[in-house]
Every structure is written in C-alpha cells, then in structure tokens.
C-alpha cells in the first residue's frame, strides 16, 4: 500500500543523532571528570596520596626501596595469646582463646633509614595478625598517647611546615610556630612532647593505636574502641636513648630477645557515649572500661631488608570480621598513603622502569 502524501516518516535526521551523541559524550566526560578529580589530575591543589607522600620525601630525601615514613625499622615475629575476654565485644577470631601468629615491625618516624636512633623521641610498632581462617588484622601503633592533628590536610601542612631548611638542616622555627598557632588541636600533643622521655629500648615502650575503631559482637552491636599494648618488661633506672651508637635500639632488641621472649598486654578501651570517635587529637577519660584481651609475645628478630616484615604494607584498614573502621579521616588517608609508598618502594626494588619515577612525580 502506498503512503498517504500527508504522512511523514519518523524523524531520524542529523539533529536527533547529534543530540544522542551529545548525551553519550556528556556522560563519558562526566565520568572522566569524576575520575580526574578523585585522582587529583584536574584539581592540582587537592590533597592526594601522591602529594602527601611527596611531602614526606621532600623532608627526608628519597631512599630507594625503603618506606617513605618509618623507614628505619626491624622485623619481629611471635604470636598473640588471646584469653577470650574481648570475644564478648568482637567476633574476630584473634580474640578467642588461643594463639595467632604475628609478623611485626619496630620503627622510627621519618624517611631516613640511616638516622640515629636517638634522633626522634617516638617509636612505632606495627603488627600483622593472621587468624586460622586467613583473615588478617593489621595495626600501626605509636609510642605516644595522642596524635597532633585530626585531618590529612593538617598533617600535610605540618609536614610542609617542619621541612628542614637545606642551609641549616633544621625546620624554620617561624614556620613551625605559625603552624601550631593555626592549629590549636595540637595542644594535647605539644603538652605531651614537652615532657616525653623516650626509653632506650623498643621493648619497654607502650604503643597506642590512636585512631578509634568499632568492635562488632555476635548480635551485630557496635562499640567504639581504642587499643594499646603495655610492656611487661621494664626499663632500667634513668635509662633513656642517649647512647652514641646510631643503632642502639635494634641492638638492644636483638640482645633482649636472645635472652627471652618480650611481652605486652593488649588492652582494649571501650568508649562511653559522647566520647570523640573520629578525632585522634582527643583522648578518652582514664576511667573508661578497659579489657585485657591477651598477651603479645615477640620472640624472634630479623633485619628489615630480608625479614618477614619487609613486604608487608601495615595498612590499618585491613581488618577481620568483628572490627570496623570509624569515620576518622586519618584512617583512609593512612591507607592510601601507605599504598602509594608501597608501590614506590617495591617498584624501586623490582627495577620496574618508569613506575617509581612517575609515582614520585605524583602523576
């Protein structure tokens, strides 16, 4: 049948086709912009893991194959002897009664793996606990009860403000003062650091998790917690890290472990309603309920360049069922920066052409 002369064919001309391609193109462009923003490519002033790690490198220099922070360290292994006391609050297998293998690392803050052990008053202890079902709990703790800043941006600004002057090798006092004046949340940390007296041994320090997390029990109830480890061994009278040997801490650790296993109690503090959960600059009152969850036992030591901790990324957001991250913004930033640092150092070790260079440039 012939069409009536009054009927018109459907519109399929260039105008409609152009409109369709405009919509598709716009969607693709939107996705590209989103990825560009997340990656920092279209927002160069935005803080990214690359920029943060680059700032750490600028302060300490680049030492290929080493971590960009806490570069100087030593591997330790042992186990966690859970006593079951924390199982009421978390279904994580590590809190059941029994042993969980541990790969740990003692270290010093900073990016120089050859810095003398007495150069900084803070030590760190990172742990990887692997449960029988293969789930892991990774945690990085520091020998200080409070963190100086609450946000990644403030940490970045602190890193830049404390950058050593090439001429003097020391930070510009005026820039440091200006930073602290602009960040009153650092007051608790500054009060602590004034009287800090670091021990001459890794094994006589207490180490704090600093960030809050959530424990989840069998009924699905969440409780905000913080953890720390308290040493069972004690320091000698008046013992501080003033020895002239630049490696006094690792040597002391080797000697002590050769004499016997070193032990800490794992203490879990439960938050009360109203306690700050997303701010590591705020301490919780001392009277909060604290649970003795078991004993950390470290009985072997190995160099970090060949020991079992060498290739471990101690990302604090690697958690088993029964432990969840809080909304503390430092946790996500630590995870991302650790990943960036890990990529750089492992690429350098493997000699992957161009990867370390591109990463170091922040691209």
From TrEMBL:
<dbReference type="GO" id="GO:0042744">
    <property type="term" value="P:hydrogen peroxide catabolic process"/>
</dbReference>
<keyword id="KW-0812">Transmembrane</keyword>
<comment type="function">
    <text>Decomposes hydrogen peroxide into water and oxygen; serves to protect cells from the toxic effects of hydrogen peroxide.</text>
</comment>
<dbReference type="GO" id="GO:0004096">
    <property type="term" value="F:catalase activity"/>
</dbReference>
<dbReference type="InterPro" id="IPR024168">
    <property type="entry name" value="Catalase_SrpA-type_pred"/>
</dbReference>
<comment type="similarity">
    <text>Belongs to the catalase family.</text>
</comment>
<dbReference type="InterPro" id="IPR018028">
    <property type="entry name" value="Catalase"/>
</dbReference>
<dbReference type="InterPro" id="IPR011614">
    <property type="entry name" value="Catalase_core"/>
</dbReference>
<keyword id="KW-0349">Heme</keyword>
<feature type="active site">
    <location>
        <position position="70"/>
    </location>
</feature>
<keyword id="KW-0575">Peroxidase</keyword>
<dbReference type="GO" id="GO:0020037">
    <property type="term" value="F:heme binding"/>
</dbReference>
<dbReference type="Pfam" id="PF00199">
    <property type="entry name" value="Catalase"/>
</dbReference>
<comment type="function">
    <text>Has an organic peroxide-dependent peroxidase activity.</text>
</comment>
<dbReference type="GO" id="GO:0046872">
    <property type="term" value="F:metal ion binding"/>
</dbReference>
<dbReference type="InterPro" id="IPR020835">
    <property type="entry name" value="Catalase_sf"/>
</dbReference>
<keyword id="KW-0472">Membrane</keyword>
<dbReference type="GO" id="GO:0005737">
    <property type="term" value="C:cytoplasm"/>
</dbReference>
<keyword id="KW-0408">Iron</keyword>
<feature type="transmembrane region" description="Helical">
    <location>
        <begin position="21"/>
        <end position="43"/>
    </location>
</feature>
<keyword id="KW-1133">Transmembrane helix</keyword>
<feature type="binding site" description="axial binding residue">
    <location>
        <position position="338"/>
    </location>
    <ligand>
        <name>heme</name>
    </ligand>
</feature>
<dbReference type="GO" id="GO:0042542">
    <property type="term" value="P:response to hydrogen peroxide"/>
</dbReference>
<keyword id="KW-0560">Oxidoreductase</keyword>
<feature type="domain" description="Catalase core">
    <location>
        <begin position="22"/>
        <end position="363"/>
    </location>
</feature>
<keyword id="KW-0479">Metal-binding</keyword>
<protein>
    <recommendedName>
        <fullName>Catalase-related peroxidase</fullName>
        <ecNumber>1.11.1.-</ecNumber>
    </recommendedName>
</protein>
